[in-house]
Amino acid sequence: MYKSLKWCTGLIIGGYVAVAAFAYSFQEHLMFHFAPVPDNYEYKFHGAYDNVTIENDDGHLHGVLFKSELINTAGPRPRNLVIYYKGNAGNVGDSERLAKLFLGLGYDVLSMDYRGFGKSRGPLSEEKLLDDAEKWFDWGAQRYGTQNIRVVGYSFGTTFASHVAAAKAVSNVMLFAPMRSIVDMATRRYPFLPEFLTNYPLRSDEKLKNAAGHVVIYHGTADEVVPYASGAGLQDVLGADDLFVPVEGADHYNVALRPEVQADIISRWSLRTAVRAQMSQRAVAGLSGETAR
């Protein structure tokens, strides 16, 4: 009896150690749904775009800059940029769908592939991925000016958007279906494994504490990929002027496409209002000049 119990206990412990070792060794494949393409692959988009490449130490990074076709009739005015950190499935070829919303509001949109996705290459680590995220912001800041950049993150990409929000002077940040952290997600999915096993804690909760700009979060209550409770946990670290918006019935994939969400985004971020205001000011100024003559 004692030998049987000892044997069973050893089997259980051995099985647990084997599962933990597997999770640790293959965590990148559990976290990332890699979708690489050849370097000469041509993405098919409907609108105007430029390919963008960045060399960052041992990383070769590729992204796409979608160009807004909103006509600026209000005279010289800086172009504005949304930097969009996408999720961890597919590649930048899937980014145009969400980008269209911000293109229609007057922003150019820069979206990128992480290492191992699309045409981006290089060894993986949390430090490298976070540094890559900053390099993309720096690229945009050099061309558009920091004051003209807004940051958007979706799902896994919210971890990078949150990091950039804390590391850089970002005035406005928008997150869709964010997680409190990868540690939180791992605990929810694999509660029997210790937290220290993850090499990618990606603590958005810690980063958003230090975000100086305005943060708006949208999370669907029917999200089965990133549980609503994980995103809602970020409310504890938001500032007094930040906003967490529950989207009733929305899931992980349609939260940003819901009409009520898009209407809310338009009311908050549309550049058309600014363009119309400038047009009105110029018209009034012109009329005053004609009257004076």
Would you give an account of this structure?
The protein is an alpha/beta fold and 293 residues long. It has two domains: 1-31; 34-292, Alpha/Beta hydrolase fold, catalytic domain (Rossmann fold, 3-Layer(aba) Sandwich). It contains ten helices and eight strands. It has helices at residues 2-25, 27-31, 96-103, 126-144, 157-167, 182-189, 204-208, 228-232, 259-269, 272-292, and strands spanning 49-56, 59-66, 80-85, 107-112, 149-154, 172-176, 214-220, 243-247. An eight-stranded mixed beta sheet has the order 1-2-4-3-5-6-7-8, sandwiched between helices. Strand 1 and strand 2 form a beta hairpin. Helix 4 crosses helix 5 (157-167). It is globular, with a radius of gyration of 23 Å. The N and C termini lie far apart (109 Å). The model is unreliable at 11-26 and 275-293 (pLDDT under 50).
